[in-house]
Amino acid sequence: MLKVDKLSFAYGKKEVLKDLSFQLKEGEILAVMGPSGCGKSTLLHLLAGLRRGYRGTITSSAQKIAYAFQEPRLFPWLTVAENLRAVVTDRKVTDEEIYGILREIGLEDTQRLYPSELSGGMRSRVSLARAMLYGGDLYLFDEPFAALDEKARRELTVWLKQKIRETGASAIFVTHQKGDAEAMADRILELH
Amino acid sequence: MKHLWRVCRILLVAAFWIALWAFAAWRVGKPLLFPSPLAVLTRLWELAQTKEFYTVVGNSLWSVLSGILVAVLAGCILATLTARVKPLRDLLFPIMTVIKATPVASFIILALIWIGAKKVPTFITILIVLPLIWTNLDVGFSKIDRNLWEVTRVYKMPLWRRWTTLTLPSLKPYFVSACRSSLGLAWKAGIAAEIIASPRNTIGTMIGDAKQYILTADMFAWTLTVILLSLVIEFVFAALLNRIGKDPSETEVSTC
User: Fold this and answer.
1) What sign has the CA pseudo-torsion A39, A44, A49, A50?
2) Tens digit of pLDDT for each residue in A87-130?
3) DSSP string, A151-185
4) 3-class DSSP state of A9
5) Quick check: B242 and B60 in contact, CB under 8 A?
6) Distance from C-alpha of A96 to C-alpha of A85, rounded to nearest angstrom
7) Rounded to a whole number, what is the distance in angstroms from the first to the last CA of chain A?
8) Are A87 and B158 inside 8 Å of each other by CB?
């Protein structure tokens, strides 16, 4: 599914990734851990094609990549339902589908609300729902549970893992929490 | 109740200024120099009874509004192009700055020589509005949230959806602000152009003629017409914007 070979990337003179190599199998969930500034988010950006100028190779068979960013990045002028609908362009998303996925994450009453009317944790959950509704063969999650309390964290871990397994997709999941990594992933990659 | 109080306040303020005007006119005591509000309103009423009045108003409205329309369209197209082609932006930037800094009268006189009196008001309106629209939209394009732009890229949104989801909503406050500033300026510049260029049957020419024959009441009446038209246009524009709808994240911005 994905092969990263001797990947290096620098912001100016500051090298954040150096000779990183790993592989991701089909249907595998990989957790990426490491201290702040070690290049975890940069790695996801490179895999999503949002940064250029790296050395090494990234070989991927993924046709569709869904990315839940570290910040929710919702369109502030769109309602929750419109935010979810906005990213899906290859099929028609029904109201039931929107309601269904929001109910799964406990936000069924927020369809008509704007992001500014949601808490930080709720926005993060909408961002996750958006990625899952978009679908894909590779999911990238950048600290998806950072703004959530312990209970919501546990519930969403189960939900997210189940959703990914259902689709048979692969996922890379950046986190600071060892517990989250162990609960979500098949394998953990430590960056230094 | 709150609305009623607001209306009362506006009426009270208007009454105060009209009373002050009436008092000043009475103190000066020379209607030829400074006519009273009643004299001006009477003259406006007389003018409004003639067919010529509506022809004159229609001509001025047409030249200014068509100028605004052309300038808005051209400004939008140019800003879209310059957002994509940076050398074109570098090329246009000094021209727009020069146009904004040059006195309108200089352009009016030049335009009078180049294109003739009839087209001058429209041309001047374009010249005033275009840089405002372009500058505001240019800033608007540069302020489009990069994080959201990355979302549109990752989720492979097609161009039309990227425009409707990100670009147009991001530009809206800049566009609205530019249009609001343009309306007042366009009127003033358009009428000034008419006064200097004197195209037939326009408000500016009427003001110019009134000045020549020292018909102060006429001058006041025509100026009042310009103010009233400006208010009506702003009201219509505000209603149009309300139809587009306001979102909770929206803040109006001005870069000019």
Assistant:
1) negative
2) 999 889 999 999 999 999 999 999 999 999 999 999 999 999 99
3) HHHHHHHHHHHHHHHHHT-EEEEE-S-HHHHHHH-
4) strand
5) no
6) 12
7) 24
8) no
Contact A140, A48 (CB under 8 A): yes
Two tokens, residue A127: 């961002």
Q: Would you call A44 exposed, middle or buried from its count of C-beta atoms within 10 A (0-12, 13-18, 19+)? A: buried
User: Quick one: tokens of A180?
Assistant: 């989250």
Closest CA to B125 of B83, B77, B66: B66
Q: pLDDT for B97-121, tens place per residue?
A: 999 899 989 999 999 999 988 899 9
Mean pLDDT, all residues of chain B: 90
Inform me whether the pLDDT recorded for B254 exceeds 60: no
Mean pLDDT of B207-213: 90
Report the distance separating Cα B60 and Cα A4, nearest Å: 68
ipTM of the complex: 0.93
DSSP E strand stretches across chain A = 2-11, 14-24, 29-33, 55-60, 65-68, 138-142, 170-174, 187-190
- Residue B29 vs residues B23, B32, B199: alpha-carbon distances, Å: 10, 9, 34
How much is the average pLDDT of B74-90? Answer: 95
With cut-offs at 50, 70 and 90, classify the pLDDT of residue B256: very low
Q: Give the tokens for residue B240.
A: 């149009």
pLDDT value of residue B27 = 93
Residues A74 and A127 sit within 8 Å (Cβ to Cβ): yes
Q: Is B144 on the interface with A (CB under 8 A)?
A: no
CATH class of B39-44+52-244: mainly alpha
> For chain A, how many residues are written?
192
Chain B residues near residue A48 by CB distance under 8 angstroms = 154
Distance from CA of B103 to the nearest CA of A (A): 40
Q: Of A71, A77, A86, which has the smallest distance from its Cβ to B161's Cβ?
A: A86
